[in-house]
Amino acid sequence: MCHLKKIREWADCVIGQIKKEASLKEDEFIFLAGVKYRKYLLPHISNYQIPLKELKIGEQLQYFKKRCPNE
Prior knowledge:
By secondary structure, the chain is mainly alpha-helical. Helix content is 49%, strand content 8%.
């Protein structure tokens, strides 16, 4: 249970930081975070896209690893 509390606290902090830079109602956001984290952010944001939402977090990481090779 403590882990969920920390994620919620993190989300509250992130929302506070976003509010300083953007509009939660008017701007559009693209989420690349896993569902465990984004589910606490989405209720605060009106316009968003989740392009990889059908992929599990490990699959998302593989997606980026294939497309963003290390130099």
